Structure formats: C-alpha cells, structure tokens
Amino acid sequence: MGKYDTCMREFLQNKERFADFFNGCCFQGEQVIRAEELQDASEMYIIENFPPEKKAAKGADAKGHNSRQSQRKTQFFRDVKMYLCSGTALQILAVENQSYIDYSMPVRCMGYDAAEYHRQLKAKKRRWNLMDRRQKGPSITSGAVSAATSHEKLSGILKTDRLQPVYTVCLYSGTDPWDGPRTLSDMMAFHPNDNYLRFLFRDYPLNLFCVNEHSGFDEFHTDLRQLFRAMNCRKDKQKLTELMGDKLYSHLNEDTWDAIAVMTDNAALLQNKEAFRNIYGNQEGFDMCQALDELMADKMNEGILIGKREGKHEGILIGKREGKHEGILIGKREGKHEGILLEKQNSEAKIRTIISNMLAGGVSCENICRFLECDPSLVEQVRKSIQ
What we know:
The protein has helices spanning 3-12, 15-26, 67-70, 105-136, 143-146, 150-155, 195-200, 224-231, 237-243, 254-263, 267-271, 288-311, 314-322, 326-333, 337-344, 348-360, 365-372, 376-386, and strands at residues 38-40, 44-49, 72-77, 80-86, 89-98, 166-172, 208-210, 277-280, 283-286. The protein is α/β, with parallel strands linked by helices and 387 residues long. It starts with a helix and ends with a helix.
C-alpha cells in the first residue's frame, strides 16, 4: 500500500470523518449515517480455494491427497470497514482507497464484497455445526436443529438466516482523470450481435468517488472538506496558496495537517509543523496559512541569496564564454547588472580584475567604459598590464 492510500486509510478510521464521507459522496451531505452508530470492523479476510488441478471426488485430489490439505488460502484486508448499527439492523460500510487508476477495480470491489458475504456464511455455518453437535449430546437439545429441514441441514444455514448487506465506495485520490471502468459491464467483451445472453448478465456498478471530479466540497462537514480542497490544488501551487488564505486552514488539527502535507507532497509542512502550533481558546491547532506564508518567504529570500551569490556575475561569464554582447543585455534585463554594481563598490583591484576578464572575453574598450562607467585610461592601463 502506497503512502497516499495509507494516509487516507488512517484518516478515515475516524468515525466522524467516515460518516461524513458516506453522507457527502452518497447523500449530498444529508446526515443519513451518524458516527455514534458506527463500530470499527477492520479485519483480515481469509478465503479458501481449491486449485482446479487438485480437485478430486470423495475428498481426494488427483495425487491421492486429502483436498483439505491441498487447498490454498488468500488473505487480504479491507482499507476501512465499519458496522452501521441502527436499531436492530446491522449493515456494513467499506471504503477502498485508490491513488492510481486500477482498470480491474469493479472486479476487485466485487471480490471484497463477496469475501464479506463468504465470511458471514462461514460464521453461520460454524454456528449451525455447534448447534448440531450440542443437539447430539446427551443433555443438551436444540429445537432449531431438530426441526431443521433436510435442505437447511445440507445448506448449513437456516431458511430464515439473513446476511448483512455490504456497501463499498472506492475513493480515488489520484490527480489523473479516471478513465477506468465504472461498472463490471465496462470490462466485458460482449458479443456485438447477441442481445439474448446479454439480457441475462447482471451488472455490478462501482461506487466511485473521484476527488478531482469535484470542487467546493460543501457537502462535507468535517475536515474532509479542507483535505479534499487542498488535494485538488496539488498541481497549482498558486491556487493552493490562495486556498490557504481561508480561515478554515488557520486552526487545523494535527491529523488534518499531516494528511494535507502527505497528500500534497509538501514535506516542509511535516518538518516544520511544530513552529506553527497555536492555542485557539481551549483547543490546540496548527496555522497552515502562516506556515505557507513563511515557507514562501523563506524560499524567496533563499532565491535572492542564491541569485546574489551565483547569478549576479553570470552576465559577465556568459559574455566571456560566448563572446557576445547578448550576455550583457540579458544580465541587464534580469538583474545581472546588480552584481557589477556591487563589484564597483569594492576595491580598485576588483574593478581591474573585471576589466581584465572583459578584455579577455573580447569586449571592446568603448563597451567596457559604457558598462562600468569608468575612464578609458583605466582600461588602457589594465590592457598594458596583461600584455
């Protein structure tokens, strides 16, 4: 799992954000799901499957081994999974985080949902087996088992048993437009002229929420709004800076600060966050508005210093290398003349060195005098000294 998927998984483990995510992307912000009705249900799925080449009748494979010994197990985690306990009803909500375009996503999510139903069936069958064993004991009887029909006994579950429905949303946090399938049928190679079998096909729609397909995010009421807005500015630093001027970014909690830093690839925010920790009333928060202002100011100052150290004399060096007056003109347009002005304030020895370098670069006496505002006699003195 990449850093972006890990970041979103940890961020959505919070029940308030999880409920807000489902309400925002599925119900236009209506408070259908409440955080107090959620229970964490994260767990590993273990799927047992039998390779086709090792299946055999009567419990033995082609090599004579017991089929239970030859079975394989697949293990995987769902990113975020919660139980929704509303009254006596139990439902399962899940989010799959995706930072890149996965062209198999409908099949993946369908597999996750099927694994959850498989887990529920196994639990019911284990309950049935336990009841069956107890019913056969000398002192314990079970009316449900004794009254079960032959079909229920063979199925391992009762006719009245029901599974909890699973609702999965794929959260795409990448920057590229999603051009992958949005339904299972998008992945199918249907025969172009066969409408009869196509009628039998049962589709599986992918509940997909692409952050980069939305703006504003007013349907969200937690700090998901701040995070999603910042994520949509990842490719536009100027737009991100303007966004951070919003007062909503002046007192972020630490989780949101870290998530914005990771999802916008801004390592400086993580490295310097302690400098922007403040107290707002009785709550502690971080001021991202101030942070970006100071970070930008630091970068600007750093650029000026680098420019003074490495760029002011560049005009002369270009003139020396290429022997063209164009280097001097570029230096004058872009601030290169500042280096020469600084040099003019130094000793006459440094001025002589500059004149010597310009003569070596083929610059005429007339241009040297005009550019350095010096006397021609000084240029002639330097010329004679280097001959």
